[in-house]
């Protein structure tokens, strides 16, 4: 893989306090049906598709720079905040958990974080502090948003901040292996 040093995936630091607090690059704002994603070649944001379902992303969604996962992409992150964040915005995000899921049979973890600069959520330190309805809503969205595309997503389980930080650390190590 050719690594363009100007691509945000490679240029933006993961954060000096990682894996506890990471930089999140938002691709998709909450409450939208647009599925944006980083174009790995140009570093620009592209419209991948409009969701086939009449569903909206329940939270701001993006990735953690300088991480790498089995799906050959950076590690995904869901960032909770009281506001809708514009695409390509950098957010300091406190890691509080992880949603483990299978997308088309492949492991596809989603780190769950809170915006560190948002006083309405930054007091949370673990997903156990989130309301049960949050888990139901997130599970429902990710298991259903691809159904009309005839694709299968299965949410396995939600795990705590400790495991989430281990996953972030591993993805940072895997990224360093990638760029050797």
TrEMBL record:
Q: Where does Mg(2+) 2 bind?
A: 76
Report keywords, A-Z. Answer: Cytoplasm, Hydrolase, Magnesium, Metal-binding
Which GO MF terms does the UniProt record name? inorganic diphosphate phosphatase activity; magnesium ion binding
Residues at which Mg(2+) 1 binds = 71, 76, 108
Locations listed in the record: Cytoplasm
- Binding-site residues, substrate: 35, 49, 61, 145
One Pfam family named in its UniProt record:
Pyrophosphatase
> Which Gene3D superfamilies does its entry note?
Inorganic pyrophosphatase
Keyword Magnesium among UniProt keywords: yes
Q: What is its EC number?
A: 3.6.1.1
Q: Which domain of life is it from?
A: Bacteria
Query: Which cofactors must be present for this protein to function?
Result: Mg(2+)
Which reaction is the catalytic activity of this chain?
diphosphate + H2O = 2 phosphate + H(+)
Task: Name the protein family.
Answer: Belongs to the PPase family.
**Function according to Swiss-Prot or TrEMBL:** Catalyzes the hydrolysis of inorganic pyrophosphate (PPi) forming two phosphate ions.
Subunit relationships: Homohexamer.
What is this protein called in UniProt?
Inorganic pyrophosphatase
Q: Which gene encodes it?
A: ppa
């Amino acid at each position: 893989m050719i690594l363009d040093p100007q691509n945000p995936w490679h240029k933006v630091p993961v954060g000096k306090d990682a894996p506890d607090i990471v930089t999140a690059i938002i691709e998709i704002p909450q409450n939208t049906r647009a599925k944006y994603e980083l174009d790995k070649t140009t570093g620009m944001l592209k419209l991948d598709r409009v969701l086939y379902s009449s569903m909206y992303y329940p939270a701001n969604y993006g990735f953690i720079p300088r991480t790498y996962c089995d799906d050959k992409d950076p590690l995904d992150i869901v960032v909770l905040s009281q506001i809708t964040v514009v695409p390509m915005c950098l957010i300091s995000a406190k890691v509080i958990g992880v949603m483990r899921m299978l997308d088309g049979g492949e492991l596809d973890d989603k780190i769950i974080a809170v915006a560190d600069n948002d006083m309405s959520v930054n007091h949370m330190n673990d997903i156990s502090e989130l309301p049960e309805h949050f888990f139901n809503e997130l599970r429902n969205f990710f298991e259903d948003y691809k159904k009309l595309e005839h694709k299968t997503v299965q949410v396995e389980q939600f795990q705590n901040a400790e495991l989430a930080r281990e996953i972030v650390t591993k993805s940072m190590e895997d990224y360093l292996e990638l760029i050797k």
